[in-house]
């Protein structure tokens, strides 16, 4: 996890833990389940990765990039 302002590291960690706890409790067919977290990235110290099942359409970024603008508007509209 990269935090620009080093004085906020503890606050950011606390907020991340709260958000991850909320995500872990969610159970909905349209929300990927949180399986856990990892910090094992070798040389990338301080990084936190969230682990979920792999979705057939790949990442949300890839999925949204392959959609028509109108499809995206309907999803968030």
Automatic annotation (TrEMBL):
InterPro entries, alphabetized: Kinase-like_dom_sf
Protein name, per record: Protein kinase domain-containing protein
Species, as recorded: Suillus subaureus
């Amino acid at each position: 996890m990269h935090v620009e302002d080093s004085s906020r590291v503890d606050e950011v960690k606390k907020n991340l833990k709260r958000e991850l706890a909320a995500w872990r409790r969610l159970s909905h067919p349209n929300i990927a389940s949180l399986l856990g977290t990892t910090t094992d990235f070798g040389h990338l110290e301080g990084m936190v990765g969230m682990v979920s099942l792999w979705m057939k359409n790949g990442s949300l970024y890839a999925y949204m990039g392959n959609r028509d603008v109108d499809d995206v508007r309907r999803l968030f509209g």
